[in-house]
Predict the structure of Pentapeptide repeat-containing protein.
Amino acid sequence: MNQPKIDEDYLTKGSFFDIYNEEDYFLSNYLIKDELVEKQMISHPMIEQTLFQHVTFSECDFDKSDLTDIIFKNCDLSNCHFTDSSLFRVKFQNCKMLGTDFNGSYFNNIQFDNCILDLANLNQLNCKGVNFTNSSLKDVSFNDNKLSKVIFDNCDLNEMIVMNTKLKGIDWSNCRFETIEVDQNYLRGLKLNREQAAFFAQNFLGVKL
């Protein structure tokens, strides 16, 4: 997993709203802290080598975002829209992302560390190197995805919906769920612990235990 390429010593302190200073909505090498960003609608914003700390994005729509070498730390991106976006070397750390919409996006070297992603829309993704660590993905919609080198480590997957997504090579053995909805045609190669395997056997194969 490649980390975002950011040198904090060379970042310029500024505001997210500086993005409007550029005709093409561009930010680079910024440190943005303790800011409230409300009801902003920008199509195809381009942001690179930027650190966001304690920033709240409220009711924002950033479709077709191009994000490269970004860290979001202790941020709130709940109910924001990043549909059809491209994310490369982006880290979300201790972020609240309730209902955040990433439908149709491309993820390459992305980390979700200790994040709350409950009710998020993660559909039609192309994922290449994505880590979900110590995070909550309850009631997440995770459908029609292409997965390569995707890791779930100590996550809550309760009531997650996973359809039309091949799970070969995915390991859920140290994750938690009481119930989960999965397309049984794509279960081959999914790694589970004994309790989880019993759940799938009972619910998808009709095995009585």
